[in-house]
Amino acid sequence: MTTYDLIVIGAGAVGENVADYATRGGLKVALVEAELVGGECSYWACMPSKALLMSSTVLDGAKAVGGAREAVTGELDVQAVLNRRDSFTSNWDDSSQAEWVAGAGIDLLRGHATITGVREVTVDGEVHTATYAVAAVTGSTALLPDVPGLAEAEPWTSREATSVKVIPQSLMIIGGGVVAAEMATAYQQLGATVTLASRSGLLSGQEPFAGELVADSLKELGVDLRLSTSPTSVLRTEHGLVETTLSDGTVVVTDEILVATGRLPRTDDLGLENVGIEPGDWLHVDDTLLVHGTDWLYGVGDVNHRALLTHQGKYQARAAGEVIAARALGKELHTEPWGAHVATADLAAVPQVTFTTPEVASVGLTADAATKQGVDVKVVDYDLAAVAGSSLKSDTYKGQARLVVDEAKKVIVGATFVGPEVSDLLHAATVAVVAEVPIDRLWHAVPSYPTVSEIWLRLLDTYGRP
């Protein structure tokens, strides 16, 4: 039996950060991983998916500017795109990440972890105890809807879609969220014929114009959009093709089918039943990431369902690692809103980028969400294409920007930008929302001309001088 101050289960980006910050705080930490150190983001999500998208994004950007357009004489090199993707995943070799763990002074335990008692974790038969805490950082997995024949058809999830070695000739995508929209963009541009079916439209959690602009772009790319439809049955034929019957009665035949309809927590085989917690459920935590009803178990990242995004998970991890160390060593806690030991932003200011063409960048509340929360909302819209910096970037620029203002407080509570490379605008909006910068003070943050950031001046001018 080996004893640590903290045992972290899951060595993805979030788990690595919990372990790192707790180690910096003075604790002896073990990090447990059953697959690859670096986790979903490094090998099957953020990094490979964005690598699949980036080459075509750059090519489209060049083709949209006169002078550069005429210099583009070739087409996208699909194999080169896949090779570049492989470089970002280190060919699914986690040696360098394991070296980082060792260099940070963290013990890496490889194997499947089971919580076998309070502060007790068994890894492939070897028992380890934690003096102070255990952190479950096991992430989430793809949700497979209960559609007749779907499981038997061996559908792709995001894992297969981001690690594919050969682009299929045709692909059916079920879902309308971020993964579905991004993979529809990537695969259509990589040469597949893509059909996307979504019961609730595209990017339904965003401002309505975001989904509309992305839908228009997907159609222009050639994606067959079947919105307000869902699969009723799926069949993998004897020839290896997939027949998907939709709720409108049509049948779509493709080489592969990708399911992107949501996520489930990876808690079903964690051993939670051994400590009185229902396995298979999301872990319910307080703002310090401590699981309700315990004083030793923390749930960090996707597994707590607060914000299923790598950057938010890493944000949580920093708070969790520091608060675990502070509690263990009897140091002062800062658990007030926006304190060092809480994850306040998960509830107020979550930034997110959807890397479609065009990009969708948002933070905070949509106008609808703010209204439902009782905020005195004023919506400020502006055409991004009307900004000088946008026209310089592209001869065919299309985009839209929106601020959601709390009229009672005179601060921004949400912002959404849709257009090429709008991800570069997002952090300024995130700072404005998190810091609750007053509208009248924002007037003095002067954007450089001619850049797309001039949208801030145009939005504030539309809102009105204080």
From TrEMBL:
Domain Pyridine nucleotide-disulphide oxidoreductase dimerisation: 350-456
Cited Pfam families: Pyr_redox_2 (PF07992), Pyr_redox_dim (PF02852)
FAD/NAD(P)-binding domain ranges (all copies): 4-311
Cofactor: FAD
Superkingdom field: Bacteria
Ribosomal protein recorded as keyword: no
Keywords: FAD, Flavoprotein, NAD
InterPro entries: Class-I_Pyr_Nuc-Dis_Oxidored, FAD/NAD-bd_sf, FAD/NAD-binding_dom, FAD/NAD-linked_Rdtase_dimer_sf, Pyr_nuc-diS_OxRdtase, Pyr_nucl-diS_OxRdtase_dimer
Metal-binding recorded as keyword: no
Family: Belongs to the class-I pyridine nucleotide-disulfide oxidoreductase family.
Protein name per UniProt: Oxidoreductase
